[in-house]
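Hi W.,

Here's what went into the run:
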Amino acid sequence: MPNRSLAVTEMACADCPIRHRAVCARCESDELEKLDAIKYYRRFEAGQTIAWAGDKMDFVASVVEGVASLTQTMEDGRRQMVGLLLPSDFLGRPNRESVSYDVTAATDVMLCCFRRVPFQGLIEETPHLSQRLLEMTLDELDAAREWMLLLGRKTAREKIASFLSIIARRDASLKNSKNAMELAFDLPLTREAMADYLGLTLETVSRQMSALKRDGVIELKGKRHIIVPDVEALMDETGDDADGGVYI
Amino acid sequence: MPNRSLAVTEMACADCPIRHRAVCARCESDELEKLDAIKYYRRFEAGQTIAWAGDKMDFVASVVEGVASLTQTMEDGRRQMVGLLLPSDFLGRPNRESVSYDVTAATDVMLCCFRRVPFQGLIEETPHLSQRLLEMTLDELDAAREWMLLLGRKTAREKIASFLSIIARRDASLKNSKNAMELAFDLPLTREAMADYLGLTLETVSRQMSALKRDGVIELKGKRHIIVPDVEALMDETGDDADGGVYI
DNA sequence: TTCGACATTTGATCTCGATCAAATACAGTC
DNA sequence: GACTGTATTTGATCGAGATCAAATGTCGAA
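Here's what came out:
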């Protein structure tokens, strides 16, 4: 199971080295300086498009704050989210000039960007960096495969429960919260974006959320704030085995 | 678009360096010797299980011949394929002891295995190797994301057409065939395995295959040999834009 | 050639989630 | 506080694909 909390914990470090550490946990200080030389920050507002599929992208980035999504769109408008990037996640392919997916800020987002070409050079000089990126990419591939099981075989109710438990887990690890029985967190996505994530319509998302609320599995404060009175009960709805294995 | 044909073409090399080159296109000869020292071959028959989810796996491997699948199973028996490995594809996570998915030989398979722990050591000493693995993993992630669009949003008919075009493309590149209008290839999967790939039932797979045949999009010789009289016509059924972007 | 074990096809029916439509909640602005 | 635009919920109906069931094809062994 991928240890995302490592990178996440390191985000608590002073100043900014976060994104360096998130990218490369073992870089020496001179390597960090090289990273420093090619980095800059960018902010995006919720709903804003960071890049369209096919755009040239001259940077790669670490997500510092907020949530960004990768989405594919078919000609007739059908949309499927294929990536959800939370703080410490990596965005972009170092040696690919253009993006393959629409990249959108789901919430307000802060990126720590690295100029792509020099970053690619750094990868070639810095073994730790490509090893670290390999680990992060393998974790992302594992997450994509769990996601494929969800898309291909789970019921609408299981999809919703799985999504909530994925967000809850990552959100909880961000807050370093005690593993209390009760869990509370905010949804970073609209119902429509949840539908794009889960391969459902927004109406079905809404109905299943209502059903889980009716059945006491979750409570809603406003539209976005979720309380899970009993984490086990939520897990039972996901269709996954008890010991987990789901991560995003 | 990932250039898989590079690795594949190199498979034509004399003797065995195939799998070395497939793993690391730029390795120096002494690095190849180190790889040689920790490699061995294994054969599996169609239908045989290579590893069960949760098993310790003491090797990683390159697929030399045949097709292997990665599959996830839920407690109640629902199954979803999450990886399909063709020749030149890589199997396993160097620094993870156990597999997360059932690995099955879909056809007779020949693997070139590398002992895992020494291989992990080699990665740490050989920058080219982790860069090469990073590229391969990013390609696999792209493929997984196309697959997610298929699972989440495509109709049964589009799923079948997409699957056929994916197999046709990879099979064609293996055979170095001229890009003729007509295309012929063998399916490496049973209807049931196709269903697991596509998130459908085997009955639906069968019905949609019959429908595509009835509509003249494909011809069947036996159950497994497919002829595509007009590649464009098949592509039109996939739901993808004309210029492609789908690969496995 | 027949038998048996599978893989595949085809048929009949049912169901979950999609679609179409309308009501409600909510946040920001004037 | 009324107004506007957007997000969300709820209702009614439909249909693609699942499910249950049976027939057909295929290949190797006896």
